[in-house]
Amino acid sequence: MADRIHGMPTFSAPDGTQLAYRVIGDGDPVVCLPGGPADSRYLGDLGGLSTRRRLIVLDLRGTGRSATPEDTSSYHCDRLVDDVEALRDHLGLPSMDLLGHSAGTNIATQYAARHPKNVSKLALIGPSTRAVGIAITGETRRELARLRKNEPWFPAAFAALEAITEGAGSDWDAISPFFYGRWDATAQKHHAASQPSNKQAVTLFAAEGAFTPETTRAALATCQAPVLLLAGEFDLNSPPRSAAEFAGLFPDATLVVQPGAGHYPWLDDADQFAATTAAFLG
Length: 282
Fold this sequence. Notes:
By secondary structure, the protein is of the alpha/beta class. The chain has one domain: Alpha/Beta hydrolase fold, catalytic domain (Rossmann fold, 3-Layer(aba) Sandwich). The chain contains ten helices and eight strands. Strands 1-2-4-3-5-6-7-8 form an eight-stranded mixed beta sheet, sandwiched between helices. The protein starts with 9 loop residues before the first strand and ends with a helix.
């Protein structure tokens, strides 16, 4: 993959913060927003999607090689939308295909709501529903978790999930197997490498005022861009049922549930993920 990364260019955000991005692969560009906020390298080359499209992978402010802002309120999700618009302008794209993963789908969703004409296609992978105010119940997560009951790690992970759901525990590490289709050495290594290091960026991402669900939902109802919502069958973070409800907010949305996948579907079945996403992007 390394020989297909064309350096780490930077650009200036509206507030002067220097932001970095990676360019991987060749072809028509697709701008990619990571979750977390965490170092975007956990996305890899999205299961080989870079052999079909040129990935423009943004390092969100305060993560990866992007600078830490002076104004910490700029970590709010709604403020990060401005960074995406600055990147589009920097790249000279009249409109762009936009892909977000996990928390990054909140940024992508708010971007599409605010700048609908600047989005050609919108791909939401392991979509978070916070920006549109869809609540995911503890029962929905438990029901999904029970699909894994024959896994050797299930008893300890489910006990930790129960404690978290009931507000009596916070051992998030113990439930990490639920986020992968296979809890093997590759998944464990990926999990260890993808933990956010900028705790302030994570905390402030969802600060009060960072989301305006009613406004966002109203704007999405008139968004003309085709939308893909891709959820993993076992994804405890972004359950297929919640993704289906989310899909209903767009005029032109396709929901794909990838069999056997968790929250990182490009790791669980790279070929299927890349083929599905590339087919949608065209």
